[in-house]
Amino acid sequence: MSRKRRIAAAAVVTALAVLTGGCARMDAKTAYTKGCEALEAGNFEEAEGFFESAIEAGYFLPEAYRGKGLSEMSRADYSDAAISLEKSLLYVENQDEAFQRDTSLYLAQCRERQGRTDKAMEILSSLILKSPDAETLFLRGKLNLRLGNSKEAKDDFNQAVAMDPGYDLYINIYQVYEDADRSGDGSQYLELALTEANKDSEDYYEQGLVNYYLQNYREAREMLIQATRQNPDDGKAVFLLGQVYLATGDIADARALYRQYTNNMSTAAGAFNGLALCDIAEGDYENALKNVQAGLAIDDDSVRQGLLFNEIVLYEQQHDWAAAKQKAAAYIAKYPSDEAGIREYEFLSTR
Predict the structure, then answer these.
(1) Which letter does DSSP use for residue 197 in this model?
(2) What is the DSSP letter of 318?
(3) Phi-psi region of 2 (alpha: psi -120 to 50; beta: other; left: phi over 0)
(4) Which domain does 345 fall in, by range?
(5) Would 139 be classed as within a structural domain?
(6) Domain check: are 113 and 203 in the same one?
(7) In Å, how far are 178, 214, 217, 259 from 241, measured between CA atoms?
(8) What is the CA radius of gyration of the chain?
(9) Burial level of 293, CB count in 10 A (0-12/13-18/19+)?
(10) Domain ends where: 108, 131, 154?
(11) CB-based burial, 183-206: b 16+ in 10 Å, e otherwise
(12) How far apart are CA 227 and CA 18, in angstroms?
């Protein structure tokens, strides 16, 4: 073969390699995108297959391994999920620190669900040592409390609120203590929220929420009425005001309030969720499910999580275990760090 023909042949091979590599990359991107869509839809085995295709193509490895890990987490397969997430971190190259941190937090969650709390603690402590942030301190505090390390938990929580003195964090800390049957210890964070949280004079909803948790229902009602007057489109305030009525046994006023707001698209989804709670209080689970589904049809992300969770519970109440399990699986795919959702899915997996 002449030198020119050898050069030409080499050029063709190079071009084919570039073309093949480009096609493989496109195929991997398509598979990864389809995997994300399947994961979002709750089709975990299908999602896992797409992510594996991307991995086999050799592209988007950190993202594909993380997607595979999330699919496995959603099936409560925490052992395989941990392996996939570790591989995601192993292949990290140009992904930003947020990607690495989030993947590490998922890995810590897997280790905790496996019962390997020492490994979970190690991951969280490593992240804090590298770059402390309020969320990771909160998560470590939560784990410390679960392990009975009360002093360490309090130290973590106090450092977290020092970094982010916002209402949400104070309330989240209270809920951790409440879940551990230690509401009294958590109440101090609610009291601090009323005095030390970053706020202005018009944070009526947040003040109403804190008072609701403290069972100061009169003060909560006053704050929430102010919030709805200030902004009639504030669906959160409307929903919580109805819950205050329900907490004091006033189902009729709660139902009247929620019905009033079903015609406002900004508040309708939350109002239907509220009507479902009224139905539940009266033991009418069939109508409650209809109201939840009416709320979901409105497609309001601000209340979707609560609606989806209530949908699971209502299928359980009607002993439709298959539907409840399917809904729970889709829920933890969308909200993989939600402890209540994980508990529901694990319970339903035994039915």
Answers:
(1) S
(2) T
(3) beta
(4) 199-351
(5) no
(6) no
(7) 21, 15, 10, 13
(8) 25
(9) middle
(10) 131
(11) bebbbebbebbbeebeeeeebbbb
(12) 60
End-to-end CA separation in angstroms for the chain: 72
Cα angle 331, 98, 94 (rounded to 5 degrees) comes to 120
DSSP string, 71-115: HHHHTT-HHHHHHHHHHHHHT-SS--HHHHHHHHHHHHHHHHHTT
The total of structural domains in the chain comes to: 2
User: Helix and strand tally (H, E) in the chain?
Assistant: 19, 0
Whether residue 323 lies inside any domain: the answer is: yes
**Its pTM surpasses 0.85:** no
Residue range 290-342, pLDDT digits in tens: 999 999 999 888 899 999 999 999 999 999 999 999 999 888 878 877 888 88
* Sequence letter at residue 69: G
Identify whether 158 is part of a domain.
no
Handedness of CA 202, 306, 65, 118 (dihedral sign): positive
Q: What are 199-253's pLDDT values in tens digits? A: 654 688 989 999 999 999 999 999 999 998 988 888 889 999 999 999 999 999 9
